[in-house]
Amino acid sequence: MVKKTCKCTTLCGSSLLLMMAVASAHASDGQVEFTGSINDNACTINSENVKKSVDMGQVRLADFANTVGATAGAVPFSISLENCSTATMKNAAITFSGQQSVTDPTILGMTGENQVPGVGIQINDARTGTKLPLNTASTDYVLRPQSNTFDFTASYVRLVVDAEGTGGKPGASGIGTGQVNALASFDVTYK
């Protein structure tokens, strides 16, 4: 009987060694990191709108009234959202931000070197035609399932008036001439 017990122990020991060898074949030699996020965004931003370019075109100095806040060259632009689900969120608001004008923090100032002095870029809500100040959310848009387009306009805006002339001659223009560049970011807030 002792001999039989030994065989069983030896056989069980071999099985145990075999199981340990299999277990060591599955030892940790690396790792996998899983990342992602869960959000409650009702839509995704249309890929063409993630980096959008709006050509403001050319305007003449004469197109501006000689008052601070006078606008010229309104250009329409849109922001489109897609894959919208209204199951959890029913409304959205758009907030623009960017380098503010030194004289009026509600409008975009110029970026880069050699920019035209005396002007900025003003954004208006196309639904109402009213100015949409930087860092201020638009009034809510009601979301529709699938696709939504939000319309705005951008205009050049005068920041300074022309100097008064003497002897019946016109004074120097408060606005310069040349290139105009401004950069805005936008955030969509779902409600």
UniProtKB/TrEMBL annotation:
**Which ranges carry the Fimbrial-type adhesion domain?**
33-190
Q: Where, per UniProt, does this protein localize? A: Fimbrium
> What keywords were assigned to this record?
Fimbrium, Signal
Give the source's domain of life in one word.
Answer: Bacteria
Any GO BP: cell adhesion involved in single-species biofilm formation
Entry's Gene Ontology cellular component terms: pilus
As given in the record, the signal peptide range reads 1-27
| Pfam family membership, one | Fimbrial
Q: Family per UniProt?
A: Belongs to the fimbrial protein family.
* Name of this protein: Type 1 fimbrial protein
Organism per entry:
Pseudomonas khorasanensis
What lineage, starting at the top, does this entry show?
Bacteria, Pseudomonadati, Pseudomonadota, Gammaproteobacteria, Pseudomonadales
